[in-house]
Amino acid sequence: MTEVIQKTLRDSAALRWTALLLLALAMFCAYIFMDILSPIKDLMAQAYPVGRGWDSTAFGTMQGSETFLNVFVFFLIFAGIILDKMGVRFTAVLSGAVMLAGALIKYYAISTAFHGSGIEVWFTNHLNHIPVFEQLGVSPFYEGMPASAKVAACGFMIFGCGAEMGGITVSRGIVKWFKGREMALAMGSEMALARLGVATCMIFSPFFAKLGGHIDVSRSVAFGVVLLCIALIMFIVYFFMDKKLDAQTGEAEEKDDPFKVSDIGQILKSSGFWLVSLLCVLYYSAIFPFQKYAVNMLQCNLTFEPVPEGSFWASTSVTIIQYVIMLIVAATAFMFNFIKNKPAKYATMALSILFLVGYCYMGYMRQSAESIFAVFPLLAVGITPILGNYVDHKGKAASMLVLGSLLLIACHLTFAFILPLFKGNDLGGVVVAYVTILVLGSSFSLVPASLWPSVPKLVDAKIIGSAYALIFWIQNIGLWLFPLLIGKVLDATNPGVTDPTRLNYTAPLLMLAGLGVAALVIGLILKVVDKKKGLGLEEPNIKA
Ligand SMILES: NCCCC[C@H](N)C(=O)NCC(=O)O
Q1: Which of 79, 262, 524, 531 could form a disulfide bond with 165, CB atoms 3.0-4.6 angstroms apart?
Q2: At what angle do helices 376-393 and 342-366 cross, to 10 degrees?
């Protein structure tokens, strides 16, 4: 008798990688929107009609608002419950719709239609104090915050709910399609595309704001909104693939690891969990909030010669060429991970480095802070999967967390004290900036590659979903607080500075280096606890 083996969509490599591509492209678009205003802080500071008159405090409060509802209304926890109850495909489409709704509000706030409207007048006079939050000692707005920043913050809060919900949903979707197959590779690829999203944002947000020689900051946000429409379409297409898969397998959606409040007590008893969560919030608070100010920090610490209008380096086509080169760097660095043949592997690496040098040269010639900072996530695209593989086979996760924190401290101190010494030295400053950004990029590969795979070693497998939700919640506190603090510290340490490209960034950078020192201390304690309690953090994930 011949046995008929029923093949499902996920048994086909092409189809399961298509499912991944849909999810990863949606997150690529989400990561672009997360930082859409970050590279144009200087423009946002200028008065209307060029900018919207946002000082550093307004900018930081708006940037931090992304995680406000996740933290203070516990939306992240609700998102976990929605995911458990409604499944991956429903939550994916919901997260896409929520992100788009929030993005449209943010677009309206920045658009010219908002300026002078009744809504602007209302927001100028209201919402300075929200009693329920003030009782908690926090507030999403403050007296005197520009109305456009308040409304943009409302939209960004809604977007942030969708983005974090999308993040956890995509991870669960990858598990659904790749369990027992190339799961780590799939997760690494999704993360790599997200990092490329940040680099894309750094290049194209200022490009659209300045397109045609006429500055319009709302064009950058419009670009992000269009991408979020594409993200929603990706999630909808995924919805139908996922539905077909369930019809084939006859399964209801997998609902393992549902979040339960009763899990919290068990998780919080683990000292290892606390140390990893603390390290996570400290480390990520020195990275993602920094990302929101980094372009402006470079504008303030480097001397950029204006590139003459009409020259090749000022043209639109050079932006496109530079972006294509970036894509080649990312693709070759990523491919390096999968090539087994040694000569081909090293040839790919050499090609990647060659194109990276070409990219850096163009960034220098264009005298553009945004294209200099865009190399930051590029290293992570290539290195994170290599390091993930190292942790899988050799271990040393705790040591990598310590090394990542050390590099973080060194980089923020270099930005604070060494980079300003090169002010006026055009080439020297750019070289120091590139090297420091690349080292920071490798730190940003070390920590995620070792931190996230360590969590399953600290808590029971059946409460792992709740543990990740809790870590994200703790991390979001830092991602809310630090953009805001950087803005406040900048305003406090730069009284009377009206030119947004002449701010002194020493104090905020010292604060970020301080976060690195705290992360380093926690990392060292983690190493001791790991040894004492045998948590296995230095052990490989895959035992031969
Ligand atoms: N602007 C928010 C960034 C997303 C944070 C997210 N919770 C996260 O940790 N993602 C993992 C990563 O390494 O990007």
Answers
A1: 79
A2: 150
